[in-house]
Amino acid sequence: MKTARNKDTEIKRTLRTDCAELRVREAVGNEPSRTITGYAILFNTPSAPLWSDEDSEAREVIAPEAITKEVLDSCDIKFTMYHDRQMILGRSNKGTGTLEYFVDEKGVGFNLELPKSPNGDEALELVRRGDISGCSFAFTTRYWDSDFVERSVKVVNGSSQITYTVKAVTGIYDFTLAADPAYPDTSVEAREFTDGLREGISPIAEEPKADVEKVRKQVREMRLAASQKLV
């Protein structure tokens, strides 16, 4: 299945980044704390690679203007483990609920008192031990609309470094605890999305696919020639 490229089509994405400062808040008084705090979204921070090979590497970045308090307050956001909505730990529906969040220059942070439930107890223990060290989040945007996502490229040592900067989102759906927050999303949907980005789009310039393959072949031939020993 090919990824649609209509500029009005909304694409649902899961963005994974290293998430600093995930921890259990210090207790106040004698009662042990069940509140975890951290950042679910980091601005201006490259994601895990969408793909990476000898010809190109692509990453996503969330611009600060993409996600505001007003955007968050318009969404129904579940806080889960591993993006599994059967393992819900908190929720903010239109700005009201058990999930508290804030927006600053660093990104979108949160405070969440974990429920006294098996899932809540498991999450608390894993965060306290450091076994879960970060977060990721799910969102939608119009990926083929340059007003929503901007594509930029720089060439380093013959390899194209591609950045997709998300400038606006159409919805936020969950924050999730993740054991490997920076590990690439390998779901079928993610692979189809990545294939859709790569297919027919030059990592070096906006050229037809045939020209892209010609450039890649030339780069490979140059690298091979450079590696040969002179007689």
Structure, explained:
The protein has 231 residues and is of the alpha+beta class. Helix content is 20%, strand content 38%. The protein has helices spanning 69-73, 118-129, 188-198, 209-227; strands at 11-16, 23-24, 35-42, 51-52, 56-62, 76-81, 84-93, 96-97, 99-103, 107-113, 134-141, 149-156, 159-166, 171-178. Strands 1-11-14-6-7-8 form a six-stranded mixed beta sheet. A four-stranded antiparallel beta sheet has the order 2-3-10-9, covered by helices on one side. It is globular and about 70 Å long. Mean pLDDT is 83; it is low at 200-209.
Describe the structure in brief.
The protein contains four helices and 14 strands. The chain has 231 residues and is an alpha+beta fold.
Radius of gyration: 21 Å
Termini Cα gap: 50 Å
What string, H for helix and E for strand, traces the elements in order?
A: EEEEEHEEEEEHEEEEHH
Tell me the number of helical segments per DSSP (H or I, 4 or more residues long): 4
Strand order of the largest sheet: 1-11-14-6-7-8
Overall, the morphology is globular
Residues in helices, as a percent range: 10-25%
Largest sheet: 6 strands, mixed
The low-confidence parts are 200-209
Number of DSSP strands? Answer: 14
- Helix/strand/pairing class, anyone? alpha+beta
What is the mean pLDDT? 83
In what range is the share of β-strand residues?
35-45%
List the SSEs and their pairings:
Blueprint (H helix, E strand, L loop, with lengths): L10 E6 L6 E2 L10 E8 L8 E2 L3 E7 L6 H5 L2 E6 L2 E10 L2 E2 L1 E5 L3 E7 L4 H12 L4 E8 L7 E8 L2 E8 L4 E8 L9 H11 L10 H19 L4
Parallel strand pairs: 5-13, 6-14
Antiparallel strand pairs: 1-11, 2-3, 3-10, 4-5, 6-7, 7-8, 9-10, 11-14, 12-13
